[in-house]
Amino acid sequence: MTFRAIKEQCRIWFKAKTLGYTIEKVKYHEWLDTVYNPRATKINDILFGFKYIVGVDHKKWFEINHKAWVPVEDAKQYVGIGKGLFKWERGNWDGDVFEVNELFGGDYLFVGTNSEEDAVMIALKFS
């Protein structure tokens, strides 16, 4: 193991202990910072780290499990660190452009991914 790798592991461990997180949660939040911008107003800017953004039907993506919305088993394979991210937004959909509007508009679910194969499968299964 190189010095740089040891230094990186120590940094992540220290951050986890300081914040009270697990090491996996720290790695997830650091990955999330590289692909997601919660302050943006357009879906392409919100999920800026992904090549493909697919609008999906939330009734196919989620199931109600003990009074909570849980992604179905088939959907879980497409999200995670390095794979993809799903984001629920309220806003206006004008053909190709989705703009966030917290007061008016419909609720939409988007999935961002960098894999063309995953994007096609998500569109076929969940749209």
Main attributes of the structure:
single chain; 127 residues; alpha+beta; 4-stranded antiparallel beta sheet; two-stranded antiparallel sheet; 6 helices
Compressed to H and E, one letter per element, the order equals HHHEHEEHEEEH
Please count the helical segments.
6
Percentage of residues in helical conformation: 40-55%
Count of distinct strands:
6
Radius of gyration: 17 Å
Determine the structural class based on helices, strands and strand pairing: alpha+beta
Uncertain spans, ≥5 residues at pLDDT below 50? none
Apparent shape: globular
Largest sheet: 4 strands, antiparallel
Tell me what portion of residues adopts beta-strand conformation: 25-35%
User: Terminal Cα separation, in Å?
Assistant: 45 Å
- Indicate the mean pLDDT: 91
Count structural domains. Answer: 2
Strand order of the largest sheet: 1-6-4-5
Could you explain the architecture of this structure?
With 127 residues, the protein is α+β, with helices and mostly antiparallel strands. It has two domains: 1-35, no CATH class; 37-126. The chain is built from six helices and six strands. The strands form two sheets. The protein has a four-stranded antiparallel sheet. Strand 2 (62-64) and strand 3 (69-71) form a beta hairpin. The mean pLDDT is 91.
